[in-house]
């Protein structure tokens, strides 16, 4: 049986990590037999990030490579109904969400002073107070450096939320009134995109971040219309 290694549930979600949510949703959508093991420290993973899986003694990290592995070994492809142009569009959306939108979530959780105290309590609540302060401050500095190196950390807070909003609008516009992002059937993009919108919606509702509320509402209708996928997220 596949074991999925991921963070424990947080923020009222099965997982605060959009990548862990994507992976577990994919496993559910593909009807695979799996169990989960919660770990706190991503450094324990083979690539220093979560999630990763173990299957028949093999350890695989990174959601893209995990999905590729599962497609090859289990002969199951959620995108089998897509032609090559549709696959290209889907891939571009996945990249937008994972390589671009992701950083705006990271900024809001780890850097924005308005939300950091809450995020710190949620993510480090189980640590003794001294360890909580030391570890969280080290990781916050690391997040700041990564955001700066990626480039998004050089923008103002307003510009970063503007990017988040424009990504959500793009997603919402493409979903339009279709049942799923790529048409009538759920595909890999639904596992990636809907869950990301839910992660964001959950945080913004929690934080009452007004500047992106209109996009969230639009995405919310998308999330509702793809409720079958939301259901897979547990
Ligand atoms: N490309 C990876 C990204 C995974 C990722 O960024 N995971 C984050 C949690 S959302 C993580 O473990 N970060 C810990 C770190 O960077 O130190 C995937 O698709 O699995």
UniProtKB/TrEMBL annotation:
Q: Does the keyword Transferase apply?
A: yes
Identify the residues that the record assigns to the Metaxin glutathione S-transferase domain, covering every copy: 165-193
Question: In the record, what terms sit under GO molecular function?
Answer: glutathione transferase activity
Into which EC class is this enzyme placed?
A: transferase
Q: Name one Pfam family in it.
A: GST_N_4
Return the EC number: 2.5.1.18
| Domain named Thioredoxin-like fold: residues | 18-113
Which cellular component terms (GO) are annotated to the entry? cytoplasm
Listed A to Z, the keywords are:
Transferase
Give the protein name, as stated in the record.
Glutathione S-transferase
Please give the organism. hydrothermal vent metagenome
> Lineage of the native species?
unclassified sequences, metagenomes, ecological metagenomes
